[in-house]
Write a structure and sequence with these properties.
With about 190 residues, the protein is mainly alpha-helical. Helices cover about 65% and strands about 0% of the residues. Among the domains are: about 55-140, Four Helix Bundle (Hemerythrin (Met), subunit A) (Up-down Bundle), CATH 1.20.120; about 145-185.
Length: about 190
């Protein structure tokens, strides 16, 4: 062991005091913490100015109109679903079923049944989308693009009341989806 003032021989390790290094590291870490920004920034959404009573009234009126529109669309879809469920075989389908003696007729009946099921599933997805839009309306996020945060145009909401994305973001999403499908084919 080498003491202070002695020469270190090859292969011997000089013991160092750990205490000064620890203090230096702690001091450096404290200094860095005080001068560096956190690595994760929290986005609290767009900062909105305080609304006036008139603006609040206009917003509430708009929400009421949108809610009525969404509930009306939802009711239409529910009626379509109930109509499909309540409707058993039509007379024409019943007649074809009774006379379906060959394989081609049976295949046609199966195709019509599968088409009916697909239409029912599509209507149910639309109803779910409208339910989600109603939830966003109550949360205050309806009409705001889920991707970029800008307001979705009134025209788009009239055309697609359950839209989550603005036209630009929707177009981008569809393009990406198309590219992914083409890559999957290759």
């Amino acid at each position: 062991m080498v003491t202070k003032g002695q020469v270190k021989k090859k292969g011997e390790l000089k013991p160092k005091s750990v205490e000064p290094i620890t203090k230096k590291l702690q001091s450096a870490a404290a200094g860095m913490a005080a001068t560096t920004k956190p690595s994760v920034e929290v986005d609290e959404g767009p900062v909105r100015p305080k609304e006036t009573a008139k603006e609040r009234e206009a917003r509430e009126q708009r929400q009421e109109v949108l809610q009525k529109m969404l509930l009306g669309k939802r009711q239409e879809i529910i009626k379509e679903i109930e109509g499909s469920l309540g409707q058993s075989l039509t007379e024409d389908q019943q007649r074809r079923l009774e006379s379906a003696r060959d394989v081609g007729d049976q295949a046609l009946m199966d195709l019509e049944r599968e088409l009916g099921i697909s239409l029912m599933e599509m209507r149910n997805r639309r109803r779910q989308s409208i339910d989600e839009a109603l939830t966003r309306l109550h949360e205050g996020t309806y009409g705001i693009c889920a991707e970029c945060g800008i307001e979705i145009s009134e025209r788009r909401l009239q055309a697609v009341p359950f839209a989550k994305l603005c036209v630009e973001c929707q177009s981008r999403a569809e393009l990406l989806e198309k590219i992914e499908r083409e890559e999957d084919r290759d």
